[in-house]
């Protein structure tokens, strides 16, 4: 993330009086991340994460996100737990933003994902899909095709400033995706942003998942396509088929893909690459700047989109 909203010690102290997490020893803003403002708190009972929810998070969705973490953790998926306040709730207000405290998850996200990481992520993604099956709440994906169109409408005019020819390329992507988006595939709870910085490892062991603030109900295979994009490209933007194979076989060791899901992977991966290119492009053109704000480069996803446009068979993703 970043820090978009700063807090004062006085406001934080008053906010913490609603919790039984001990005495505040220190706090600092976390520069990592993109969407919300996060702070690392140290109290006399240990470390915690304080999140102030920003622009893309609707307050009305917070019970879904926080309830999902509780639900998944109860089914064996390691993730942070929302800390309850004295009044039983998990959501308060700090510096004018909705805010919550979650437990601290040990581990580090992999800066250079390996084949082993990819296999582990495939397995945990499938396990999360199965564990989410009986979650009682639902949330529509705000960043499905309609949401992409809004981002594009707000950025299209200046897209060629970012990459020559982008306007024409993306218009063609929309024409294809609106026609071929597969609505008939298995749906359920998806993470929708399972990038390396949202998966923690202790050594080669996966220690847990964070950042459920895009989670929603959508196509399960779309979540897998997002992981292909986020985990299996090298720094030079070449697709690493060995990593793709590890991710897909890890996933299928827990949940087998149907033939229709396999066949849809190219269009899903293209749609997912478009989605991340568009949020990055929008933030690049319209997002706030600041010392603790790191903007992500849309160019990476422009190149991934070009790769997916060139795919002629799903075997090119490493599917055996
Ligand atoms: N529960 C947690 N335990 C440990 N570190 C966390 C936890 N949640 C967030 N962080 C830290 O905060 C950073 C940003 O969190 P993230 O949820 O990805 O933010 P955003 O939603 O703004 O992208 C992470 O990269 C990690 O360093
Ligand atoms: N993963 C997205 C940005 C969302 O940021 P995160 O810190 O919540 O993962 C991207 O890479 O564009």
From TrEMBL:
Q: What are the residue boundaries of the Aminoglycoside phosphotransferase domain, all occurrences included?
A: 27-256
Query: What's the catalysed reaction?
Result: L-homoserine + ATP = O-phospho-L-homoserine + ADP + H(+)
| Pathway note | Amino-acid biosynthesis; L-threonine biosynthesis; L-threonine from L-aspartate: step 4/5
Is this entry keyworded Nucleotide-binding?
yes
EC numbers, comma separated: 2.7.1.39
Which Gene3D superfamilies would you find in this protein's record?
A: 3.90.1200.10, Phosphorylase Kinase, domain 1
- UniProt GO MF annotations: homoserine kinase activity
- InterPro entries hit by this protein: Aminoglycoside_PTrfase, Homoserine_kinase_II, Kinase-like_dom_sf, Pseudomonas-type_ThrB
What keywords is this UniProt entry annotated with? Amino-acid biosynthesis, ATP-binding, Kinase, Nucleotide-binding, Threonine biosynthesis, Transferase
Pfam families in the record, alphabetically? APH (PF01636)
Give the protein family. Belongs to the pseudomonas-type ThrB family.
What the entry lists under HAMAP family is as follows: Homoser_kinase_2
Q: What is this protein called?
A: Homoserine kinase
Give the source species: Aquamicrobium segne
Name the gene behind this protein: thrB
């Amino acid at each position: 993330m970043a820090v978009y909203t700063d807090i004062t010690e006085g406001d934080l102290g008053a906010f913490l009086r609603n919790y039984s997490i001990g005495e505040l020893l220190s706090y600092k803003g976390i520069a990592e991340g993109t969407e919300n403002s996060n702070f690392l708190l140290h109290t006399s009972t240990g470390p915690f994460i304080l999140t102030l929810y920003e622009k893309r998070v609707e307050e009305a969705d917070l019970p879904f996100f926080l309830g999902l973490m509780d639900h998944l953790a109860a089914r064996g998926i390691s993730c942070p737990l929302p800390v309850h306040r004295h009044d039983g709730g998990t959501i308060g207000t700090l510096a004018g933003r909705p805010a919550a405290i979650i437990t601290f998850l040990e581990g580090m996200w992999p800066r250079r994902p390996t084949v082993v990481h990819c296999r582990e992520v495939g397995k945990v993604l499938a396990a999360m899909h199965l564990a989410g099956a009986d979650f009682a709440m639902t949330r529509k994906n705000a960043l499905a095709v309609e949401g992409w169109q809004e981002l594009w409408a707000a950025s299209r005019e200046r897209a060629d400033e970012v990459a020559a020819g982008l306007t024409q390329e993306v218009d063609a992507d929309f024409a294809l995706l609106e026609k071929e988006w597969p609505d008939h595939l298995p749906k359920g709870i998806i993470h929708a942003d399972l990038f390396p910085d949202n998966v923690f490892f202790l050594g080669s062991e996966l220690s847990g998942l964070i950042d459920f603030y895009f989670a929603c109900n959508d196509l399960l295979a779309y979540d897998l396509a997002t992981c292909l994009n986020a985990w299996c490209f090298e720094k030079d933007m070449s697709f690493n088929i060995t990593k793709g194979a590890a991710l897909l076989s890890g996933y299928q060791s827990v949940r087998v893909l149907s033939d229709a899901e396999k066949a849809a992977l190219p269009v899903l991966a293209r749609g997912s690459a478009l989605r991340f290119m568009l949020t990055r492009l929008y933030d690049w053109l319209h997002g706030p700047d600041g010392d603790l704000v790191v903007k992500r480069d849309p160019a990476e996803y422009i190149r991934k989109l070009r790769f997916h446009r060139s795919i002629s068979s799903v075997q090119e993703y490493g599917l055996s």
